Each structure stands twice: as structure tokens, then as C-alpha cells.
From TrEMBL:
Keyword Amino-acid biosynthesis carried by entry: no
Sequence similarity: Belongs to the glycosyl hydrolase 43 family.
MF annotations from Gene Ontology: hydrolase activity, hydrolyzing O-glycosyl compounds
Pathways per UniProt: Glycan metabolism; L-arabinan degradation
InterPro entries (UniProt xref): GH43_arabinanases, Glyco_hydro_43, Glyco_hydro_beta-prop_sf
Protein name: Glycosyl hydrolase
Length: 313
């Protein structure tokens, strides 16, 4: 009797486990970001299916001369709401903003707003690749990005990138996406850097970033570690990728860590590096399948309910 009961309990547990399935959504943009948000879905982190026949889910509607939606980054809040930020403009005084919208299902979105940043700084050249992170201890959101503020950091020919950019990472805090703290410096590794993304694991906060220096060519990904999501960050690693990659997005699937990237020069392709200890990395791009023309975005895990609704679009 006990043997039969154990068998049926084991069978039931196996069936329940089989029904549980993780799904992952990748945000991205195409071309220059003029047509907005693109989404792709995967159940293994390797094979990515474009949704809605790779048509835009949300077109940029912020009143701005550029009105782009580049580098869309999404995080889901504790109440289930998806929050998204993006790059609105390449350059200019009118570019000191971050695009923002929210959604309950990644399909229906609230009106887009512009979040002002670096309001007390002059000579801000750009606001690029904003991302989001929820600080569980402070119970608020951190919006962080890279900017070049003229004259703020020492410039030399080895530290600059194309068009003499000299970026560092900055952030603001918010609880409601209506009121924001003053802009603070997030991280200065001592060189020009863009495309930060935060990843939390076992009480540590890992900041993946692109070393943007051009002479000699870096253009690769590195990682620093902090005790809080705003640092201080230390133990900056050596590059763990090839050159000419950007837009890192990190996730843990099972016992493995993945950092996806956009190889933006010829041949243009999306790829990933895999690690089992956040120290040793191997490229697994050849095993990946991504939508054609995919550009810098972010990856998140979603529920089966959200995934099924997206598949019906």
C-alpha cells in the first residue's frame, strides 16, 4: 500500500513539474529605433521566436525631435507591472531625458512620458541605454544610464571613443515613476564606458559594462561587483568577450549564467556568453537563434500566462 502511494505521489509530482515551464522575453529594436519595441520569446534561452511577426509592439510617441525607442529595457515589479525605459535621442540639449512607459501584459501600454535627468548639469551630450533595477532594501527603483558630460572627467586620446565621447554611469531613484531623486554618479571605472546592466545573485550585485575605449580598441564587456545596487563597485574584471560587442543583458537559467550581447559590426549578430561561476566564460553564440536584425535590448523571465498571451498576438 505504501509503495503504491509513494508511486502515485511521485507520478503526481513529476506531472506538476512537467507543467511548470519557464519563459523568457527579449526586448529589442530595429534599425535606428524609429518603429519602437520588438519582442521575442524563448523557453530555453537559446531559441528566440519573434512575436507578432516581428512587428512593433509599441511605437515611440514622446514629443521630441528624434522620437526614437532604442535600447528598450524592461523589468517587472512586485505587483506584476512591467516597467520600460529607453533611449529617446542620440545627442543634444533636448536629449537629457529617458523614455518611460508601463504595461500589465507587454501588449497594452500606458501613455509614454519623458523622465528628465542631469537637470543641474550643463554640456550634457547624451543619455544612452537606460536600464531599471528594483532595490528591495530601499523599496524603490533605480534608473541608470551612461552620459558624456563635457569637462567632468579627464580626457585623453586613449580614453575617448568615436566623436570624442567620454561616458560614465549615472542614476536616479523613484518609487512611483513620477517623482525622482537628483542624478548621482553610479560608477566611474576610470575610463569611457557605456551599456551598464545590473544583475543580482546571492546577495551580490554584478555590473556588466562595455569598455568603450577606441585607441587601442577595447569595445568589449567587463564586470564589477558591489555590495549594493549602487555600489561602490570594485574588482573590475579583465574583458571576457571579443571586441565590438555591446548591450549586455544578464540572466540566470538553471545553474548557468548568460550574458547576451549585440555584435554590432560586420558580421552583425546577436550572441551570448555562458558561465557557471561568474568567473570563466565561454561563447555560445553559435548555438543561439535570434530574430534577424535584432539590436540592443534586455531579457527577463515571465510567467506562462504572460507568454501564452503574447503568443496569441
Amino acid at each position: 500500500m505504501k509503495t503504491r502511494l509513494l508511486f502515485f505521489l511521485l507520478l503526481y509530482a513529476t506531472q506538476i513539474f512537467a507543467q511548470k515551464k519557464s519563459y523568457y522575453v527579449f526586448t529589442s529594436f530595429r534599425d535606428n529605433g524609429q518603429d519602437g519595441l520588438h519582442l521575442a520569446l524563448s523557453n530555453d534561452g537559446y531559441n528566440w521566436q519573434p512575436l507578432r511577426n516581428d512587428q512593433s509592439f509599441l511605437k515611440p510617441q514622446i514629443n521630441h525631435p528624434d522620437n526614437l525607442m532604442r535600447d528598450p529595457a524592461i523589468k517587472q515589479g512586485r505587483d506584476g507591472t512591467f516597467h520600460m525605459v529607453w533611449t529617446v535621442s542620440w545627442n543634444g540639449d533636448n536629449g537629457k531625458i529617458v523614455g518611460y512607459s508601463s504595461s500589465k501584459d507587454l501588449i497594452n501600454w500606458k501613455p509614454q512620458t519623458a523622465i528628465p535627468v542631469l537637470e543641474h548639469d550643463t554640456d550634457v551630450r547624451n543619455v544612452w541605454a537606460p536600464e531599471l533595477f528594483y532595490d528591495k532594501k530601499q523599496k524603490d527603483w533605480i534608473i541608470y544610464w551612461s552620459s558624456t558630460v563635457k569637462g567632468k572627467f579627464e580626457e585623453d586620446i586613449t580614453n575617448l571613443s568615436e566623436s570624442k565621447y567620454n561616458h560614465r554611469f549615472y542614476y536616479v531613484r523613484t518609487r512611483d515613476f513620477e517623482h525622482f531623486s537628483e542624478t548621482q554618479l553610479l560608477y566611474d571605472p576610470g575610463f569611457n564606458c557605456i551599456d551598464a546592466t545590473l544583475f543580482e545573485d546571492k546577495g551580490k550585485f554584478y555590473l556588466f559594462l562595455k569598455d568603450e575605449r577606441l585607441k587601442p580598441v577595447k569595445k568589449n564587456l567587463r564586470m564589477a561587483v558591489g555590495e549594493t545596487p549602487v555600489g561602490p563597485f570594485k574588482d573590475l574584471t579583465a574583458p571576457f568577450t571579443i571586441s565590438w560587442v555591446e548591450g549586455p543583458s544578464a540572466i540566470k537559467i538553471g545553474d548557468e549564467y548568460y550574458v547576451y550581447f549585440d555584435h554590432y559590426t560586420k558580421p552583425h549578430y546577436y550572441g551570448a556568453y555562458l558561465s557557471r561561476d561568474l568567473n570563466d566564460w565561454q561563447e555560445v553564440s553559435a548555438q543561439m537563434r535570434f530574430p534577424k536584425g535584432m539590436r540592443h535590448g534586455s531579457v527577463i523571465e515571465v510567467s506562462k500566462k504572460v507568454a501564452q498571451k503574447l503568443l496569441r498576438e
